[in-house]
Structure formats: structure tokens, C-alpha cells
Amino acid sequence: MTVLAALLAGALAADAGQPAQTQRKELSRIQRELQETRQDIDRFRKAEHSVRQEADRLGEATDRARRKLSTIQGDLNRTEAHRKELRSRLGALKNASEMWRSLLSAEAVRYAMDRAAGASSLWRERLLRGAIIEKGALLTTLGGAASKTSRLETQELHHQQRLADAKAKVAVEKARTETRFLGKKAEAEELKEKTQAAVNRAVELEESARALQRMIESIARLSRVASPSGTIDLAKHSLPWPAEGRVTSRFGKQKEPKTGTWVINQGIRLETAEGAGVRAVAPGSVIFAGPFRSYGRVLIVNHGGFFGVYGDLGETLKKKGERVAAGEAIATAAGKLYFEVRSGTGASDPLLWLQAR
């Protein structure tokens, strides 16, 4: 939450004036965080490029698998058509064989009857014998053709089975590739969002750095006046909590789950009930009241030995310049509350000072 440092510095410069040395330390810290954010951007961009290359490769592999499946399906269709043609030819050969076998049988019976009756002349006997031999040869030819056709049909059936197996294998590989492709596309989109989030954060940090730089130059021209020093004269775990709620974001360097970027939190964030009361952790006076960037409505209270920064407020009940008592309601929460403890412009972990739960 480093941009609040610029806000706080501006409020103090207008109200009290701060030592330039303290502001320089804050600027140095923001510049370090900016450098880390820029490194995040570079890392995300490289990762996004790599993932997109992998997604393109998987997309090409998916297209190849799709074309291969189309080719195999065409082969299967042609094989099935050839099998149907062979099956039809085999049926015709069987019908022809049965017909000629019946004729041969009739010729053989007639030949036997003529010989038994002794009524057959020599030329008739030769004619019948020739017809029987011719029909027998034809039947042999038909049988060979039928056998060959049957073998061809069996071969086509085996070829069809191999094609079906190959099709199933390619289909499985295609499905796997498509799944990986979609996963890589989603990963690339996520990295793109993370990159944009890191870029946005870098812009925000740069704006804060420039604001602090301007503040340093302004403070250098201001006279020194008394203000909270860099130490907090409080017993640890002595302050009451500003609101009831669960801590969802802690002080210090934290990794944001949505973007995967590292941020340095200057305070803590609580999840509260909508409209929950926000109370001053100590007596003091309000030095800033109003909206600020992504922190919603903000109150900054000078508690004497330290500053309290209350953000993400629903409604503010105090105005700039008003005094507040310890435990007094100063605002309502909008389902969450951001809270900082600062001495000078240096942030301190609020959990060190808030009462232990």
C-alpha cells in the first residue's frame, strides 16, 4: 500500500512538515519495490511468451491430428466400400457355383441313365461327357474365384481393424493435445492478466515515487516543527482493534494470490461486517479525510506518538481538524478495513501494537 506514503507525506507537509531524511528513506523503499515489480513484469512477459509458443505448438499438433483423423476416416470409408463390393461379388460367385453345380449334377444323372439304357449314341455320349467336364472346370474356376474373393475380404477386414485402431489412438492423442492446448491458452491469458496487473502496479509505484520526490523537494524548503518521531512510545499489544474482523492481509511483503506478484503492505486488512463500526485506537486529531485512489475513503489520525491510517471506509463520521477520543466511532466499514500504524513516515506492523487475540 505504498501510495498511502505519498498521501501521508502530503498531509504532514501541509499540517506540520516532515524531515526530508525520513521522506528520502520512504522514497528509497518505494524505488526498491518498483524495481521488484519491474522484475515481476519481465518474468511474466517471458513466461507468457514461452507459454504462448507452447500453445501454438500444441495447436499445430492438434491440427495435424485432426488432418490425420480425416485421412484415416477416408481410408476406412474406402475400405468399407471395397469390402461391400467383395461381399457382393462373393455372393454372386456362390450363387453361380450353386447353379452350375445343379446343372452338372443333372448332366451327370442324364449321362448315367443314357449309358444304363444303352440308348446313347457315341456322339451324344461324347457331347454329354464334354459338357460335364466343361461344367466341372467352370465350377473349379468359380470355387477359386470365390476363395480368392473371401481372402481379399478377410484382408480388407484386418486392414479396416488396423485403421480403426489407428483412428482410436490418434483420437486419444488429439484429445490429450487439445486438453493441453486449452490449458496453455488459459495459462497464457492468466499470465497476460498478471503482466497487466504488474504493469499497473509499476505505474502506481512510479506515480508514488514522483509524488514523494516532489514532497522531498517541498519539505526541504519547510521549517522543522514537532511531529511524531521514528519510534512509537507504546507498550506492545496495548491498542484496541479498530474494528471486529478477520485479518485477510498482513503487514510486510506478501504475494497476491490473484496476480502472483509480490507487494509490500504497509498495514493490515480486515474482513468485517458491512457497516461495522470503525473506532479510533487512541485519542488524536484528524489530519486527512477523503477518498484516495484504490483505498476508497480514508481517515488519517494524528494520535500524538504515531499516525493511524484507516482505509476502505464506507462512511466517514469525522472531518479534518476534528478531535477524536480513544474508542470513539470515526467511520463505518464497507465489508473490509485497511489499517496502518506510522511513526513519522515509516510504517510499523499493526499486529505488534494491537491487543493479542
Description:
This protein has 357 residues and is of the alpha+beta class. It folds into two domains: 20-223, Helix Hairpins, CATH 1.10.287.950; 227-352, Glucose Permease (Domain IIA), CATH 2.70.70.10. It has helices at 3-15, 20-117, 122-219, and strands spanning 246-249, 252-255, 262-265, 268-279, 284-291, 297-302, 307-316, 323-324, 329-343, 346-348. The strands form two sheets. Strands 1, 4, 5, 6, 7, 8, 9 and 10 form an eight-stranded antiparallel β-sheet that branches. Strands 2-3 form a two-stranded antiparallel ribbon. Helix 1 (3-15) runs parallel beside helix 3 and helix 2 (20-117) runs antiparallel to helix 3. It is rod-shaped, with a radius of gyration of 46 Å. Residues 11-19 and 219-227 have low confidence and may be disordered.
Q: What is the structural class?
A: alpha+beta
Please report which band the strand proportion falls in: under 5%, 5-15%, 15-25%, 25-35%, 35-45% or over 45%.
15-25%
Cα-based radius of gyration, to the nearest Å = 46 Å
Number of helices: 3
Number of strands: 10
Domain unit count: 2
CATH topology of the largest domain: Helix Hairpins
Topology as H/E string? Answer: HHHEEEEEEEEEE
Return the CATH architecture of the largest domain: Orthogonal Bundle
CATH homology superfamily of the largest domain: Methyl-accepting chemotaxis protein
Mean pLDDT: 76
C-alpha termini separation: 24 Å
